TrEMBL record:
Keyword list, A-Z: Amino-acid transport, ATP-binding, Cell inner membrane, Cell membrane, Hydrolase, Membrane, Nucleotide-binding, Transport
Residue stretches in coiled coil: none
GO terms (BP aspect): L-amino acid transport
Membership in a protein family: Belongs to the ABC transporter superfamily.
Protein name, as recorded: ABC transporter ATP-binding protein
InterPro entries linked: AAA+_ATPase, ABC_transporter-like_ATP-bd, ABC_transporter-like_CS, BCAA_Transport_ATP-bd_LivF, P-loop_NTPase
ABC transporter domain segment(s): 11-240
Enzyme Commission code: 3.6.3.22
Listed CDD domains: ABC_TM1139_LivF_branched
Entries under Pfam families matching the protein: ABC_tran
GO molecular function: ATP binding; ATP hydrolysis activity; branched-chain amino acid transmembrane transporter activity
Length: 246
């Protein structure tokens, strides 16, 4: 059993349904996140991608189906318990405290309040701007720098799974390229990543596997490379061609 758990997917969703008030948002979401790679969660606006992430994290409760993390059913677990189990979540709205310094933001993200200096040096190599603004209030950072801080907060301690919602939204091309470099470097560590992304150059550059959603359902799963090579499938699933987003 332990061997199967160590080699099976780090995350599995099976038939997940979610209601928010009177609205039925997810109608049966099923996909897996393999260990040690990047799984892209793609779909048109309103397909249910963010709801899926929030359901995984327990911020919204699934009304049916199961969410399994590292062999354990976490469908009914609280958000703090899910985070404690080894999942870090970076929401779309940049999870930073504007009135606190960059240093204080990072210390709050460390569960013990103490930051491992070697790991901090590693984070600084990926995000040198954070070292520059270390004692500055996070509110003075640019949008791209705040997004860097959001990701840095999530990885300041080792995690088994990193869930990120649209990290390049609204960012300049140069910052997007830096994010691609960061996620490629993260792939060299032991963390598994589930990434919602609308920038398809980013998706193609870092994704290993992909799940595509439409109208609250999973409509396609496979490798990112296969989707990137099939323009007709891209048009069918996403209504666009990746070739137009190079």
């Amino acid at each position: 059993m332990a061997d199967a758990q160590a080699t099976g997917p780090i995350l599995r969703l099976q038939g997940v349904q979610t209601h928010i008030g009177p609205y039925h948002i997810l109608h049966g979401v099923s996909f897996e996140v393999p260990r040690g790679g990047v799984t892209m969660l793609l779909g048109r606006n309103g397909a249910g991608k963010t709801t899926t992430l929030r359901t995984i994290m327990g911020l919204w409760q699934a009304s049916a189906g199961t969410v399994t993390f590292d062999g354990t059913d976490i469908t009914r677990h609280s958000t703090p318990a899910i985070a404690q189990a080894g999942i870090a979540y970076v929401p779309e709205n940049m999870s930073v405290f504007s009135d606190l310094t960059v240093a204080e933001n990072m210390r709050l993200a460390a569960r013990t309040g103490a930051i491992d200096e070697r790991r901090l040096d590693w984070v600084f190599r990926m995000f040198p701007a954070l070292k520059t603004f270390w004692q500055q209030r996070a509110g003075v950072l640019s949008g791209g720098q705040k997004q860097m801080l959001s990701v840095a907060r999530a990885i300041i301690e080792p995690r088994q799974l990193l869930i990120v919602d649209e990290p390049t939204k609204g960012l300049a091309p140069a910052i997007i390229q830096n994010m691609i470099h960061v996620f490629r470097e993260l792939k060299q560590t032991e963390v598994s990543i589930l990434l919602v992304e609308q920038n398809f150059h980013m998706a193609k550059s870092v994704g290993d596997t992909v799940a595509v959603m439409d109208d609250g359902r999973t409509v396609h799963t496979g490798t990112m490379a296969a989707l990137a090579e099939d323009e007709s499938l891209q048009q069918k699933l996403l209504g666009l061609s990746l070739a137009a987003h190079q």
